[in-house]
Each structure stands twice: as C-alpha cells, then as structure tokens.
Amino acid sequence: MNKLKVTLVVLLSLFFLYGCVQTNILDKVGLTTLVGYDKGSEHKIETTAVIREVNPEFQSKVEVITTENDTSKGNRMEANRRLSKKIMVGQMRVVLLGEELAKEDIRYYLDTNLENADVSNSIYMAVVEGRTAPFLTYEYKDIDDIGQHIYKLIEQNVRQEFMINATLHQIAHDYYSIGKDLAMPIIKRDQEFVELSGVALFKGGKMVSKLPAKDSFYVKIVRDTFKVGLYETILDNDDIPSKILQKPTDKITIAFDAIHSNRELTLVDAKKPEFDLDINIRSRVLEVFPDINQGDRKSVAELEKAIEKKISKEIARVIAHSQEVESDIFGFGEKYRSIVRHSNLTREKWHKLYKDMKVNVNVKFVILRDGVFE
Amino acid sequence: MTKPIQLSPKDMISAYLLFFIIHGAQVGVGIQGFQRIIYIDARQDAWISVLIAGIATHIVTFCMIKTLEIYGSNDLYGIQIDIFGKWIGNLFNLMYIVYCFVACFSVLRNYIEVIQAWLFPSIGTWFLSATLLIIIIYAFTGGLRVIVGVSFFSIILSLWILPMLAFPLKYSTAESLFPILENDFRSILKGAHSMTFTIIGFEILNIVYPFIKDKEKIRKPVHLGLLLSTLIYLAVMLVSITYYSGGKLVKTIWATLTLFSFISFPFVERFEFIAVCFWMIIILPNMCFYLWAAYRGATRLWNISGVKFVWLFSFFIFICSLVIQTRTQINTMNTIFGKVAFYVVFVYPILLWPIALLKKNFTSKKVKHNEQA
Amino acid sequence: MKFKLPFNKKQPQPINEAPKESLVRVASASDHFIQSIQNATNNPADLIIKLVPPNLTLIYIDNLVDIETLNNDIIANLQNKPHETLEEIEIAMSIPEIQHSNLLKETVESMVNGSVLIHVEGYSQVLLANIATRESRALSAPENESQVIGTQVGFNESLSTNISLIRRYIVSPELCNEKFKIGTRTNTSISLLYMNGIANDQMVNTLRQRITDLYIDELLDSAVLAEMIDDNSLSVFPQMLLTERPDRFCDAILDGKVGILVDGSSMAIIAPQSFTEFFQSQEDQNLRWQIATFLRLLRLTAFFLSVYLTPFYVAAVTFHYEVIPQAFLVPLSESRALVPFPPIFEALLLEFIIELLREAGARLPTKIGQTIGIVGGIVIGTAAVQAGITSNILLIIIALSALASFTSPSYMMGNVIRLIRFPIIILAGFWGFYGIMLAFCFILIHLLRQTSLGAPYMSPFYPPRMKEMRDSIVRMPIPLTAKRPALTRPKDKNKFKPQPVKPKKS
Predict the structure, then answer these.
(1) Mean pLDDT for chain B?
(2) Contact at CB, C442 and B17, closer than 8 angstroms
(3) Residues of chain A neighbouring B173 (CB-CB closer than 8 A)
(4) Could you list the residue range(s) of the whole structural domain that residue C397 is in?
(5) Do C412 and C349 share a structural domain?
C-alpha cells in the first residue's frame, strides 16, 4: 500500500512536469512598445512596430520593423522572422493609425487589440499625419526610444489635460456606443520633434475631420470635466470692454489655469433637438498681456464677461464644425438617448438629427485668484 | 418521518458561519462575466434584473428554511425520501447528486477557460483540472469545518478586490443608466432569469442545515449573506453599465476582469492577471460545497466512504473536463445548466414547501387518528 | 487521508523487566551488599565505596553528590559514633531528604539520581540520603529570543532551577506541577505545569495522556518531545511553541495553556498554540499598544513578503511580463540581460546560497562567524552580480525575504517560512501566478486542517472570534483584552474585570 502511494506521488510529479507552460522570460522576448498601422498595397496591412530588445552586449536596443501582411498577427509572425527574440505585445503602450487608414475604417484595428487578452485596455491611440512608417523610422536626433517617447508625450499631455484622453477603452466605448463618436489626438513629426498637432474627429469608424491642437481645450471642456489645464486665449478688439484697458490695444492675450470646470447638458427640445450647454469654469489667471487692472473688482468682472463671451463663441464654432462633419464627439447623442424614452436611436438616425441640432452655449467664467504679485 | 441525522457536537458549526457559507457558495465564476448575458436582455436596466434576482433568492431561501424547519434536523435528501417515498425519493436524490456534479464541474471548467484565455493559452485543460481537483480533495478530506474555513477565508481575503471597483468609476458616466425602466418588464425578468447561473449556490443551505448548532438563529446570517451577494452583484453591474458602452459590454466576455485591466499601481500593472489567478480562492468554496453536498447524498444512497467518494467524483469531473474542450461547448453547457438550475434552485423549493406542509398535516392527523383508535 | 504517525504513540506498557528482578532485596551483609551494587551498576570507576567503622558502608557516585554536604553533614556525624538502628542514623544526620528502602533496584536508581546509600551491617534495608548536585550553568540572558524591554533571564538546563524561576513569577498554590519520567534508558524528568482553575481539564488530560503513552528509550531535548506529542507530526508547521523565556511561559500558563519542562533542556513547550501566536513576542506586552500593533503587523507583512516576494518576481519575469510597470521594465530586463539562467534557477541558486550562509553562520564558532558576513555580503553578493550569475534586483529581493524570515519571534516558524519558499518558487517558475495561488490555497487549507491540542490552529480568525482579534495581529490596549483566548477553552474566562479604557478621574 505504501509503495503504491510512493509510486503514485512520483508519477503525479512527472505528470505535472509535463504540464509545463511556454515561458515568456522578460529578457528573452522582444517587447513591442508601439505599433503603427498603415494601409498597405492590395488590401494588406502595413505594420510598423517599435520593439525593445535587451542583449548582453549592449544594454537595450530599439528596433523599428515594418512589415506587410493580411492580418496584424501575420505581421507579427513576419516581424518575428526578422528578430532574434520572440515578439510579445503585452507591454504595448501606444497604437498609431496612419491618416489614410483612419479615413477608411478603424474597426478592425480596435477589435484585434480588444480581443487579445495580452493587450491592455489603457493603451493610447492616436492618428499620425501622413503615414506611420516614415514617421516612426525617421532617425530623430534626440530621441532614443521612439515608442517610449511617444507614450510619455501623450501621457504627459493627457495628465496635464492639454489633450483629450484617448485610451483603447474610451475609443472602444465611444465606437460601440450609439450617441457618441470617437476622437483621437493627431501626432506628427516636426523636424526633430514629435508633436501633438490636433484632434481627429471620427464619424463611426471613419476619420472625417480634424481640429487644431488649440481647440482640444474646447473639445475637452465640452466632453468632460476638467481639472487642471493651462490655456491661453486671445481676446480681440471687439470683445474687449474699453474700460478695463489701461492703454488702447487691439488685443489682449490671457493665459489661465482652469482649476475646475463642469458642464451641464440639458435637453430643451427633443424634437429638434435643442440642447442647453452650461459650462462653469473656475480658474486662475496667470498672465494678461497687456496689463490690466486686476485689483479693481469691476474690471475683473468685465474681464470675466469678455472671456465668457470669447469661450462661448469658440465652443459654438467647434460644435458647429463637428456638426458639419456629422461627428458627435461630445456625446450629445448619449444625453439624448438617456433622456428620450423609447427613442430607438441608431447611429444613422442620430447623425441625421445631429446635423440640425441646436446648442445654446452658456459659459460662466469665474476668476478665483491670480498670482502672488499684482 | 425519517429519523433526523445524528451528528456529534464536534461536527456542528455555529449559525453565524452560514453567512460565509451562503455568500462563499454563491460568488464564483459567474461574476466574472455575467454582465453581458443580462445586458443583452435588459439593456441599461440590467441592474434592476440583478435586484429582482436578488429578491428572488431571499424568497426562495425563506421557503427553504420553512421546509427545513418542518423536519427539524434533516437535509433535502432525507426530506425527499420522506415525501416521495423510498424509490422516487432516491431517484430525486440521485438527480440532485448529478446536479451538484454538473454545478461543480461547470465552475471548474469555466475557471479553466478563463485561465486559458487570459494567462496560458497553451496549458492543458487536464493539468488545470487535476491541480484544482487535488486542492479540492485536500480541503474536502478535512471535513465540513475545513470547507467552511476555506469559504470564510475566501471571503475575507478577497474583500480587497471590492475597492478596486472604484478605479473604473473615473471613466464612468451615469448617463448610461438612463432612461430607467425603458425596457419592458418582460425583458427585465428575462435578464433576471439569466442571472440564475451566477446567483445560485445558496441551495447548499438545504444540505448544510442539519449541521447548524443553533437552528433558530439561521435566518439573519443567511439573509445577510444573500444580501451581500446581491449588493456585490449590483455594484459590479452598475459599474459595468456605466463604464462600458452598451455595444462594448455586449462584446466583452469577462467584463469584470476587463474592468481590472485599467488598474495599475506603482509596483504592478495589468491587475486582471493577478485577479484571474486570485479567483482560484473565490471558486474553491463553490466547488468544495457542491462536492460536499453530493457526498452527503451519496452516503445515503450507497453508504460510501468519503475518501472513496471524493476520488471517484474527482475522477469523473476530470474525465468530463477532457471531453468539453471548446468555448462553444462550455457556453452551451452553461446555458443548459442555467436553465436546469433555475428549476432546481428557484422553482423546486417553492413547490416543495406546500407539499411538505401537506404531508406533515396528513401524517400528524394520521398519528392522531391512530391514537384515538 | 489520515496520516499515520511515524512512530508508535500508543504501545502497551512493555514487560521489559522480570518481576523477579525488581523484587530482589537488599542483602543484610555488607560485602554482599557491596557486591550486589557493583554488579547492578557494572562497577563504574566513579562508584565510591566508603566504610565507616564500625558497621556502616557508604556508597555513592562521585560528582553526583555534594561533597561538602557529604563531609560535613553525613560523615562527620556518623564517624566514630556507634549507631545501632537505622532510625538513630537518620536522626544523627542533618539531611532533609532521607528514604528507607529494601529493594535493590530502587536503591540503585536512587543512587544514580544522586543519593548516598547508607547500609548498616545486619540490616536488609538501606538509607537513601539525597544530596544530589547537578552540573548546570548559571542563569543567563535568553540568547535565541532576546528582547529589548523585558526580563533578561532565560531557562537553563536544570529542571529544578526552571521550576523555581516559574514559581518566582507565579506565586500561587494553584500552579500545578506533575512529574513524569520518560525514556526507558535516560529516565528524563518531565514537568507538566498548568494553572488549576484556568487550564482546561480536557487539554491537560490529553497532554498527560500523550506523554504517558510515549514509549521511547531516550529523550534528550524538549524539541523532540514537542514533535512527538504534536497533533500532526507530519506537518511542517509547529503546533506547539518552544520558548526559553520564563516570562513568556508564565504568560501562556496564565492564559490557560499547559506547559512542559524537560530536564536537561533549556526550552519549554507550550500548548495549545495558534498560528498567529507564533508571530507574537513577549515584548509586545511590554510596549505601548500602538507600537506593539505596528510591530505585529510588521511581522505579519514580513511573513507574506518573505514567502511570496521571490516567487512573485520569478512568476512575473518568467510568464507575466505584462504586470511589470514600465518604470521597472528597463532596469529589470537590463539587470537580467547578462544572466544565462532562467529566473527560477537563478532564484533557487541565490536562495540556496543564502541558506548556506545562514547554516554556516549557525554552525561556525562565534569567532569565525564574522568572516561569514564578509564572505556572504561582499564576495558572493557583489561577485555573483559581476560575474553575471544573478541580477541585482533579485539579489535585493532575496536578501529582503531572508531578512524578513528572521523577524519571526519563533525560530521554528522562521525555519518553516524559509523552507516553504522553495516549493512556491518552483511552482511559480513553472506556472506563474497560477502556481503561486495553488501553493497559497494549499497552505491555507493545510493550516485550516491543523489543530493544536484539539484547538483550531487558525484561531482567532477561524472560527472567527471578533473579540479576540484584539490581541492577535494587533494588540489593543490592555483594558480591552480582559478575556483569555478561547483557544485554550479556559475555565475562568476573564483575566480581570473589564474596565473602561480611561478610568474616571476622581
């Protein structure tokens, strides 16, 4: 009986050793940190991957590999054939899409990443102006690891609330929701630098338009609540109340820090539809040029008024633009769906409604304080 | 009436532990991905379905306790034999054992599927099922006290997962919940029906009842346990509906696990990888209780020893896990099992109560009659 | 699945001595008596036979008796004074412990224990004057369980000294002391100590039963006894506490536990003992409750860190590279780049080296011990990294977990922590987090299955006793811990009357 037990234990342990799993030892795999998709020839996908490798001889190396194949997994296999290490995507941080490709349909690229359990939901997505391959393979003078750099760049700007937050989760969320369209930052090469140059607007899975980077503030402010964000705006001559000026000038540049903002969206008329958009911004004025008298309560109030007017105008312009291209990146449709019972909203239906939607923008701007020196 | 089970006080457990038994037996693999099944039926009102299902568990448990109280100290197996006679009763008992077997197996197989999908696509099903079964056998041979202990620790040690639900709230929008009650009541009820697979497990009360020390005190812990489960399901559901958009939720297979994908700490990222493995301790009580419940029935039928039974039972589960391989098979199994479980867990106890009452009245009258005669 | 114990605890009392032998009487003639004693003891070199004229014979074993007492109180009193009867002799000697015996076996046994045999010519009875002196060292500080605040005295190897130490702490007639002899050849004395009126009778009975049921021929240390009377000797986790601190021993006894002292061993056994109590130090009682709570939590964290940190590293680096945050990714992979081994092998190797260092440090004489620190710290640590055998980060992790394992106040538990790490590392190296979880569940169930003297090992967590958690992984202020732990099922549940934390100012 005892002998039987011993043999059983030995057999069992052998049995378990057989159940070994394929290992992915950290230094034996090539970690893809960034993937860029482009439209290839004949319906193929061109993939550019930034892969980080560690070798004993040199500390770590970044390879940028461009491959062309029918599927993204096929591209991975092809890239594998060119590298000494197995390629893994579990540490991927950014997915870039070529502009040309974004204008077609991004659904496949969303789904392929959502499906893969290795890929995190918190990776960033962005559209590249032009094609991704030359953008990534360009040898930047001061950038060692282009993958890491782009990730840090986007993350930093999102944290600082300069740019809209476009993680895979949010993009998939917007893509699969009926009343909201997705938006992504646009990234481009500016000589030796990489910069975020604007916001891409999508209608369904297609990129339809873009807004300059400056407008991302307005997009953000309408899309969600805003915490800390620096913004600079220019008040033109006709916006400026003459009283507050110490000497005549044709424009005032104001930089402020939106400490807190919230938006409130109310549906006024479901038929048309018509929305009231109330935005409250509480901020800290950082810089005004040329100088105005901030000590005076009245002139501050006037300044607030002027900024309110300016911001509402800009917001109205951004919304109008998005309406023109039928891209509801602000989620008016979600609001409409959540209020109108049995709306049976579909995407087409909403886009039709959206075109003729009316929005009354109402901004309330409060200057909480300025700096430590008046 | 059949004579009540005789137990030594050493095997008995305190009534308040029922809180952990009920809750531990309920929460398991279902919670990993129940959202989408309910969302398909009830849309944004899925949380109402969860609530309805939760209330239903309270009602069913009420009936269960009433039925059990009629018999004093007996479990479902004994009650069935008493009500339906030896032959039909034993047939019912056998069916209940098979039910426990399938329940145990479906928990195991679903968990293995999750491990294979998230962590090790290449690992053999047989390996995972063998290792898990060994752990379960080890727990089972320790007796009911150890199983309840496992259930207790499984709850205490996994409490820290709950606060993790706060992380996705950052990306949640309350708008997704509105308009409330847009969907008709039928589809909401249908959603509640789909909760069956996730919410069952509390029927263990039927079997564990004779082992409770102070039987008059069981109501509070049992209903509190059910309440906690319902609250947890509700919280997970609300977070999921607000975090995902409808289209995405329907396409996400294990929505709870995907929720964790966002969570990162300075020392660890991709929290779902840890959560998937940690889930092992959450499913352990599930499987142990079903195994134990099956064993209680089997001892009545065949007078089999615990060790022998557990090896046989595990062997059959192991064989089954080799048979069911693909995702579609698993899904089919879950659907069929969910349907059967609905009748076993939700309908049957409600029917059993009046039958038991009638039978009791009948026999007591008969006894009286005999006495008079 | 019940494990059989590896040795027989219950064996019928062996019939190893013929009744004839035990009934041999003492010879009345002196030379016959001397001959019979020499035969019974195999005539050892230290057997001293002294004739005191006219009719007395003194026999004793050198070094076992106190020479001064022998000279001053026995020989001086007996010499040159004719004594006729045993009673007269007994009165003449100024010795408190004198016995009469007419059985040879009893006489020899008594002599071996340090008695002087006084035989009077013509009497078939001897006087046994017990003037034993036992070689033992002086009391010293407890070196294995040192603490900063608290008494600085530890048990030594003498049973009587140890009991006197305990009697000094607990001055009460309720302190029960039962004596047993274990070991057919060593005849080791054992004392079972407990508080009457607190300790649970059933537990005392169980322990008494387990001790008397033992049939072994030698017992040299209490650790051996502890292993033999454990509930599950096959488990790696100790179920009884070994301590060399009399204050800890007394505290446990006052909580209703049962203690065992073994002659010749400086460690006392305490049972029942729960798992969490192994992570408590007596010092916790002497510190403020906030600090004591912090220390206890620190030790518990150290336990988990020590057991799971290395496996976590192995699993993350081998399988789950996804969970490594980006900030760690580059340093981790670069430090691993030179290492030719897979992480599991690397970790096992380093763990092995650390264990070697520990073992060598424990075995080497103290004078050379310092060298080990240098060899371990500088030579192996630095050189191994430079040679590319291990990575820096793993070295830190291993050192940290080794350090953490030493924080357990019980050396036995520290050993367990270090040992169970190895299988977990192997599991982690093969199946990643799944393997770790498998080990975790296994250990959890294993702990749940254990009992200590029939009491649940995981108490007070399971079965959950909320009130007792006040003095488990945390230590609440003393007024809140008025109850004795239910683990011991004490007869008297309260240590004192619970009072408000802050007494009202009068």
Answers:
(1) 89
(2) no
(3) 331, 334
(4) 287-449
(5) yes
Q: To the nearest whole angstrom, how far is the Cα of A40 from the nearest Cα of chain C?
A: 30
Report yes or no: B278 at the C interface, CB cutoff 8 Å: yes
Instruction: Report the share of chain C in percent with pLDDT over 90.
Output: 28
Torsion angles phi and psi, residue B281, rounded to 5: -70, -20
Burial of A353 (0-12, 13-18, 19+ CB in 10 A): buried
d(CA A162, CA A156): 9
Mean of pLDDT values over B238-249: 89
B-chain CB neighbours of C325 within 8 Å are 264-269
Q: Which of C330, C338, C342 sits opposite A25 (nearest CB)?
A: C342
C122 lies in some domain: yes
Task: Please indicate if any CB of chain A lies within 8 Å of the CB of B172.
Answer: no
Number of domains, chain C: 3
Choose the mutation target among B45, B114, B178 for the interface with A, i.e. most A CBs under 10 Å.
B178
CB C127 within 8 A of CB C99: yes
Give the separation between CA B20 and CA B153, rounded to whole angstroms. 9
CATH among 1.10.530.10, 3.50.50.60, 3.30.1370.100, 3.30.300.210 for A225-374: 3.30.300.210
**Per-residue model confidence (pLDDT) at position C79:** 77
Q: Which of C257, C284, C311 delimits the end of a domain?
A: C284
Chains in touch with A (≥3 Cβ pairs < 8 A): B, C
Residue C5 has a pLDDT of: 46
- Give domain status of residue B372, yes or no: no
Q: What is the DSSP code (8-state) at residue C287?
A: S
**Interchain pair C437, B278: CB under 8 A:** yes
DSSP assignments along B44-92, one per residue: GGHHHHHHHHHHHHHHHHHHHHHHHHHHSS--HHHHHHHHHHHHHHHHH
The set of residues, in sequence order, having a beta carbon less than 8 Å from that of C59 and lying 6+ positions away, is C34, C37, C47, C48, C49, C50, C111, C116, C117, C119
Same domain for C291 and C431?
yes
A339: closest chain B residue by CA? B179
Question: Is there a domain that residue C2 lies in?
Answer: no
Distance from CA of B140 to the nearest CA of C (A): 10
Residue contact A54–C432, C-beta within 8 A: no
Nearest CA to CA, how far is A366 from chain C (Å)? 39
Contacts of B15 in chain C (CB under 8 A): none
In sequence order, what are the beta bridge partners of C192? Answer: C178, C260
- The segments of chain A whose pLDDT lies below 70 read 1-2, 4, 14-19, 56-60, 225-229, 237-249, 291-295, 371-374
Q: Is pLDDT above 90 for B359?
A: no
Who among C1, C323, C440 is closest to B269 (CB)? Answer: C323
- Does C339 contact chain A (CB < 8 Å)? yes
C231 with C106, same domain? Answer: no
Instruction: Judge if ipTM > 0.85.
Output: yes
Max mean pLDDT among A344-358, C283-297, C319-333 falls in C283-297
**CA–CA dist C320, C433 (Å, integer):** 8
Q: Does C432 reach chain A within 8 Å, measured CB to CB? A: yes
Has residue B89 been placed in a domain? Answer: yes
Give me the residue label for tokens 């460690």: C267
Asked if residue A123 lies in contact with residue A196, where contact means CB atoms within 8 angstroms, the answer is: no
Say which range, C285-289, C339-343, C347-351, C368-372, has the weakest mean pLDDT. Answer: C368-372
Domain ranges of chain A: 26-219, 225-374
> How many Cα atoms sit within 13 Å of A356 on the Cβ side?
8
Over range C434-457, report the average pLDDT: 92
Residue numbers in A near B120 (CB within 8 A) = 21-22
Q: What's the rounded Cα separation, in Å, for the pair A147 and A92? A: 9
pTM above 0.80, yes or no: yes
Q: How far apart are CA A85 and CA A59, in angstroms?
A: 15
Q: Are C421 and C401 in contact (CB under 8 A)?
A: yes
Residue B188 lies in a domain: yes
